[in-house]
Amino acid sequence: MQQPSSLGDSAAIATLSPEPLSAELVIIGHGMAAQKLLEQLVTLVSNRRLAWPVLVIGEEPCLPYNRIQLSPLLAGEVNVSSLTSQTDDWFKRHGITRLSGDPVVKIKRDTRQLIMLSGRRLAYQRLIIATGSRPALPLSLPASRQAWPEGLMGFRELKDVEQMRVACSKGGHALVIGGGLLGLEAAEGLRKRGLDVTLLQRSERLMNRQLDDTAAGLLAQALESRGLHIITNAHLDQWLQASDGRITGVRLTDGRELKADLTVAATGIRPEMSLAQAAGLRCQRAICVDDHLRTSDPHIHALGECCEVDGETFGLIEPIWAQIEVLARQLLELPTAPYRNAPLATRLKVSGIDLYSCGELVPASGDEVLVYQDFTLNDYRRLLLRDNRLIGAVLYGDVSAGNALFEALKSGTPLAEIREDLLFSPEEALERLEATAPPPSDDPNTALRDTAHTPPDSLEEAA
Ligand SMILES: Cc1cc2nc3c(=O)[nH]c(=O)nc-3n(C[C@H](O)[C@H](O)[C@H](O)COP(=O)(O)OP(=O)(O)OC[C@H]3O[C@@H](n4cnc5c(N)ncnc54)[C@H](O)[C@@H]3O)c2cc1C
């Protein structure tokens, strides 16, 4: 399917020549991580043209866009044109060549070349893999099918939203499989576009990794009151199929058959590491990188959802921004601290429903759980404390204290002094605590821990 023309479906195509096109720095994948990295490089050189040729190759046939905004786009809350921040002119001005709609199919590490689907060859000095993730399938596909059959889709790309919008124009019933952030946002978007939507969640509650029973119950109540059908403890048995192979719904293990005109799988993501695996780079759940985003090949970095650091993979933008900070400075030979995994906060993007969750959910023995609930205002707060320090928070309704609590969680500040106010006026209490805290000591070891990485010679010269 074609992408909407407002995002520029005319790829910047380099002239085909028998010699491989060559660039000092080549990025595979032009999603959120790649684009932010380019913008960060440009910022670090004070908005000037980059000193070495950069080439970025995207499989999607359009300008890079804000994938996070696909949810509001599906819900009809934003226009497609607001999803992209840069024009073709921006790339030209900064010396970046953009190739799109032509994926890389092979990395030849011995000659430092890439082969694209069109057969074009590219040479690199330094390579960054930023291929993101693919939607995971909740059940294996019907026999002999490689690609997703008609009637079944993921929620990952702009073309998915385009396809859903077409489906919505015909009306009917949709099944969304997965009661996490993505599934809820897909279900609510489809419902707002007029489909009758049933959401299937395998666990006994929605967002089971982020919410406790009470918050998940409040969320389910709010969504059901809008007309969404929710089935929890829904275990899939098999796909229902029409004679032409089209997916027409699912059968659950309890025998129930749920028919749908459109089925959306939102049951997690699978890091896209196939190129890296085929090229012999070290991979586990994703492409293994060290704390400077280096793969097992010194000429290749990996970034974003396709990589794994210390056994952790990524599905939210915040840690990826931190990776970019490390990688961009490294490419420009600026001193940089290593990348470290850190706790994450989650927010749902469904308008009219505010919830915030960060840190741990399940108390260990000796932990304290503080709970506040206002039944009239549908306001709920649950804080998890260990040794008087915040280790987890769930907020539903009034989430204004979310960021302040998250900061307190990350800093590990002792909260005994403000314990009594922590539930009722957390922001004010935390501000008060901060105002009375002694200034942080200047520990040179915490500022810059590592500046040791040296890039290949050619980049060194160019920088
Ligand atoms: C609907 C939706 C809502 C989201 N909401 C939030 C949110 O509220 N908050 C949040 O923090 N995160 C959210 N996320 C997650 C966030 O979008 C991702 O974490 C982020 O996009 C990851 O960036 P990335 O560059 O690693 O991967 P991507 O943005 O997926 O980019 C990877 C790109 O690589 C391309 N590619 C893959 N293989 C090849 C190849 N062989 N050759 C060339 N190109 C290739 C892909 O086509 C893709 O364009 C959301 C995601 C979705 C789908």
From TrEMBL:
It comes from Cobetia crustatorum. Its cofactor is FAD. Keywords: FAD, Flavoprotein. Residues 429-463 are annotated as: Disordered. Belongs to the FAD-dependent oxidoreductase family. GO terms for molecular function: oxidoreductase activity. Signal peptide: none annotated. Residues 345-412 form the NADH-rubredoxin oxidoreductase C-terminal domain. It comes from the Bacteria. Residues 24-307 form the FAD/NAD(P)-binding domain. The keyword Flavoprotein applies. Pfam families: Pyr_redox_2, Rubredoxin_C. This is NAD(P)/FAD-dependent oxidoreductase.
